[in-house]
């Protein structure tokens, strides 16, 4: 059974005449008759019968007509939706985002994209673990993700968006608070730390940088929520080594600017970027979102 045969069948059923249906379809009547016979062979039943000069549907033809009309309508609707997506008059983009990025970089991206493409829906998924985002992009659960680089899974496209310095978050009254020339990591060897649990990208980054400075940080509290890290630092439980965005250096997070101390060691930064499946870029909405993301991050 082929699509054009269903179209021919519906035309004959509506016209109740091979002659009129052939004229409507711009076909020779013998060609139309051949296609209807092939369709009857495929379904294993006669679809039309003549009663005098009238052409009427058989019981099998009545049943097939209902399904053929619905199928053709769905196919036409599918074509319309494809036109909407390729013309950015509709469609959807699913984006994964780390919470520390979502609160700061993403609002400007979404506002710009919304103004340019108001008919495209953006679905956001938040997660704290970069490797999980990579898996979701690879497996098609997300179109792209804004996450920490470098990536660990092969076969994904990636691009750096921003290189973000790490800072030290200290409690009110801490001796290092407000130090204008910043702090060297080796000075923190005797400090109590609060931070993310092992397995989180921020924890791995902090542990690696401290190890390079010659010590292992003494974590007295581990959590899976950045908001708890902020609260514990404010309560005087310890210090935290965080990227600037995650530390709330732009006023988010509830800390006084003096509580956020620069780190002087070289290469104390994290790279934030976007990862995607190459096949996802065949979608016009996904490609457009990536373009807006690049432009916003570069300004």
UniProtKB/TrEMBL annotation:
GO terms for MF: DNA binding; DNA-binding transcription factor activity
Alphabetized SUPFAM superfamilies for the sequence: Periplasmic binding protein-like II (SSF53850), Winged helix' DNA-binding domain (SSF46785)
Stored PROSITE patterns: HTH_LYSR (PS50931)
Keyword Acetylation: no
Domain HTH lysR-type: start-end pairs: 1-58
Gene Ontology cellular-component terms listed: cytosol
Keywords per UniProt: DNA-binding, Transcription, Transcription regulation
PANTHER family listed in its UniProt record: HTH-TYPE TRANSCRIPTIONAL REGULATOR YBHD
Family from the record: Belongs to the LysR transcriptional regulatory family.
Protein name, as recorded: LysR family transcriptional regulator
Species this protein is from: Pseudonocardia bannensis
Lineage, broadest ranks: Bacteria, Bacillati, Actinomycetota, Actinomycetes, Pseudonocardiales
């Amino acid at each position: 059974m082929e699509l054009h045969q269903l179209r021919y069948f519906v035309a004959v059923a509506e016209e109740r005449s091979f002659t009129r249906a052939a004229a409507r379809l711009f076909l020779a009547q013998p060609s139309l008759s051949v296609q209807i016979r092939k369709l009857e062979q495929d379904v294993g039943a006669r679809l039309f019968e003549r009663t005098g000069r009238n052409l009427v549907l058989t019981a099998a033809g009545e049943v097939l007509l209902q399904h053929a009309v619905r199928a053709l309508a769905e196919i036409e609707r599918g074509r319309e939706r494809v036109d909407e997506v390729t013309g950015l008059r509709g469609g959807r983009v699913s984006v994964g985002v780390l919470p520390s990025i979502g609160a700061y970089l993403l609002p400007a991206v979404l506002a710009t994209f919304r103004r340019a493409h108001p008919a495209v829906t953006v679905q956001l998924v938040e997660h704290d673990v970069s490797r999980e985002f990579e898996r979701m992009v690879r497996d098609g659960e997300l179109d792209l993700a804004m996450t920490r680089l470098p990536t660990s899974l092969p076969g994904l496209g990636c691009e750096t968006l921003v290189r973000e310095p790490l800072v030290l978050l200290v409690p009110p009254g801490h001796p290092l608070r407000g130090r204008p020339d910043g702090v060297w990591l080796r000075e923190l060897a005797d400090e109590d730390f609060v931070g993310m649990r092992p397995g989180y990208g921020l924890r791995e980054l902090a542990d690696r940088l401290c190890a390079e400075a010659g010590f292992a940080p003494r974590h007295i509290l581990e959590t899976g929520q950045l908001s708890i890290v902020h609260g514990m630092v404010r309560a005087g439980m310890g210090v935290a080594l965080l990227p600037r965005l995650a530390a709330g250096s732009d006023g988010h997070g509830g800390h006084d600017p003096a509580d956020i101390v620069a780190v002087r060691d070289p290469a104390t930064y994290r790279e934030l970027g976007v990862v995607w499946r190459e096949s996802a870029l065949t979608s016009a909405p996904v490609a457009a979102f990536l373009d807006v993301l690049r432009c916003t991050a570069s300004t």
